[in-house]
Amino acid sequence: MGDVLAGFHAVWEFESDSVLIRYERGIRTPKLFQALGERRIPLSAVEEVTLTQGKRGTVALRLRPRPGADPVMEAAAGQLREGSDPYRLALPAERSTLAEYYADELKGLLTESGPTDRYLVAAPEAPLQFKAYDGKASFDGTTVQFRWSWTGASSTKWKAGDQSFAVAGLSGVEWRSPEVFEGHLRLLPREGGSARPTQPDQDPASVVFGLGYGPVHESLPFAAAVLAGVRSRGPVPAVPAPARRDPADIAERIRHLGELHQAGLVTDEEFASKKAELLAEL
């Protein structure tokens, strides 16, 4: 087709086998769109094309991806608001005839349907990181790391220590939007793993969100990238030795550990063991 259709917040460029979506930057553009930047959607990843009436004199052209075709949408699991749907292009109502033309053209090019056994849309690229309420999460493409915050992490997580997870040892990711109550990102181990705490704030394989912590545009691409890593996992990679920590950071962690010890939340043995681990990182 080789044509271009510009709407609010995005431009769609139509090719014979794909749609290239370029998201605009600006204060009114959803931050998730800005984080995604540009995405090529193969038509083999699309199951349906719809055109519907929108709000305030607009129409919406939308692609519906096949189940399992896009790690971003798989991680989102239907939790995205309509305005943050990266497959939805809003246009002025006066362009509805043009939008209908492209919708019909795209429908004629669709040949696949049903779930896919591999991702057909590229995942956000690592390295990625974001700040959750109880810690910092980072992903380098093979390993997810959680580094707890002394101001937000539960005593259970402090006792467990900072965590490192190879994607080869994971079966998936559970993402709950920070825009709803009790948002979190939880890493799911392969079958046969030990029993897990019900509450994410007690699970060392989870980070919890809060106001301003783990926003959609940071935590969702992160979850999608980890999912893609899980899907294409190979042998469990060796976990690199942790980098030397800032002495001031270590001192702050030991101080907080002492507070937990004085409050009776950490035993004498646990306090001595964890303090020794922290000092060994200097």
Automatic annotation (TrEMBL):
Residue ranges of domain DUF4429 in the record: 12-106, 137-226
Record-linked Pfam families: DUF4429 (PF14472), SHOCT (PF09851)
Domain SHOCT positions: 252-279
Name this polypeptide is given: DUF4429 domain-containing protein
Organism: Streptomyces diastatochromogenes
